[in-house]
Amino acid sequence: MAQTGANSIAVLDLGSAKICCLIAKIDAEGDARITGVGHLGSSGFESGAVKDLSRASELVRRVVQQAETMAGHVVDQIVLITSGGHLPNDILRVEVAASGHAIETHDITKAVRLAEREVHRPEAVTLHAVPACFTVDGHSGIRNPQGLLGENLTLDVNVVSIEPNHFGTLEALANTAMLDVPAVISSGYAAAQACLHDEEKELGVACVDLGGGISSSVIFCGGKMVFSAADAIGSDMISRTLAKQLGLPLSEADRLKKTHGRVWQRDADFKEVIAIDQRAQSGRIEHVEVRKAHLISLIRPDVEEILNAVAKQLKRAGFVGRDAGPVVLTGGGAQLQGIHQLAEQILGCPVRFGFPPRLAGLPAALRGPSFASAVGGLVHVMSGERSELSVLSRQLRAGGTLSSAAPMWPKRMLRWLRSAW
Q: What is the 3-class SS of the chain, one letter each residue?
């Protein structure tokens, strides 16, 4: 095996249901080809947090080794994708005096540099800082204020951060596998990078990543992420309910959910029976039958609870009603039969499923919603984080300017911002 892969990038998605490592080789044109893949069911994780460092470390080593063996080389750096440890969505607002003159590049640069200094706080570790919009003398939602006359220029930055202890644990986890961590990405943001189209991000869209232990909601409008939230509730809850109510091992309950799970009952479900291996009071395993309608009746309340939690987050951001925009469902929980229709009913928005892009070399088994955050993390790294505050700062310091002046955001989008911020 070669010592180190030149022109390669590696990401590691630390989910509650599974861990996935992807290694990609970047060619001279900047295109990526997946060269290494490794994934296993999670062990030592719960709701996105590390609960057993020893077991989690062993799992990480095995998954990374799988990907390295397939790629034919080892990696020494890996970008982590995490769903745990999230702090509430925060908006950083900085203001600089423009003194009534036409706003110039140096005014924008001053606001960006001030935001850079204030975005890093001791009580949190910043994962993403996205400059959302500018405000000039109370007129908000401006994408490019250059040339406008005003007394005060305000920059709003959407900040996604995690708890310092969670960040430290993730670094320790990677270090046990002899890996350095150049960056950590939010799983919800990564999933959105995989599943959303540029036009959707411009017009307004929400991406909901239904993971095993965490459900993440991310809203884009004007091409920028303007809201992010995560709830410690996911599709693992369904498996636990089935295990308790039907007396099943958790692994069997999870298999039953994936094989026969659905959220709507049909007439035939009251007649159809499913054979299961149930643990009797004596401790012995007995072969019994359960009606499919009963199985669905156990699943439906948990799915409603998950979607209601998502609806609450979207409502907090002002993303409500059919005029708000579409919701894109992804993640392993999105694969449950019938969830699309139930989500439209509960969220009150048009809903579609989100699938990751078919990158060259990506195995067919990894093209479903379950691997959206892993593939999205790779897409995010390849993009060079173009939407981040740090990139804008480097661009301005190098003598660049913002893109050509664009109109203010529609009032519908501004209502989201005012509701969330």
A: CECCCCCEEEEEEECCCEEEEEEEEECCCCCEEEEEEEEEECCCEECCEECCHHHHHHHHHHHHHHHHHHHCECCCECEEEECCCECCCEEEEEEEECCCCECCHHHHHHHHHHHHHHHCCCCCEEEEEEEEEEEECCEEEECCCCCCECCEEEEEEEEEEECHHHHHHHHHHHHHCCCECCCEEEHHHHHHHHHCCHHHHHHCEEEEEECCCCEEEEEEECCEEEEEEEECCCCHHHHHHHHHHHCCCHHHHHHHHHHHCECCCCHHHHCCEEEEEEECCCCCEEEEEEEHHHHHHHHHHHHHHHHHHHHHHHHHCCCCCCCCCCEEEECHHHHCECHHHHHHHHHCCCEEECCCCCCECCCHHHCCHHHHHHHHHHHHHHHCCCCCHHHHHHHHHCCCCCCCCCCCCCHHHHHHHHHHC
C-alpha–C-alpha distance, residues 83 and 329, integer Å = 16
Average pLDDT over residues 60-72: 94
Estimate to the nearest angstrom the gap between the alpha carbon of 136 and the chain centroid: 32
**N- to C-terminal Cα separation, the chain:** 51
Q: What is the pLDDT of residue 176?
A: 86
pLDDT tens column, 322-357: 778 899 999 999 999 999 999 999 999 999 999 998
Q: Are 357 and 348 in contact (CB under 8 A)?
A: no
How does pLDDT run across 274-306, given as a tens digit for each residue? 888 777 666 677 778 889 999 999 999 999 999
Q: Report the distance separating Cα 203 and Cα 353, nearest Å.
A: 18
Residue 262 backbone phi and psi in degrees, to 5: -160, 160
Residue 200 has pLDDT above 60, yes or no: yes
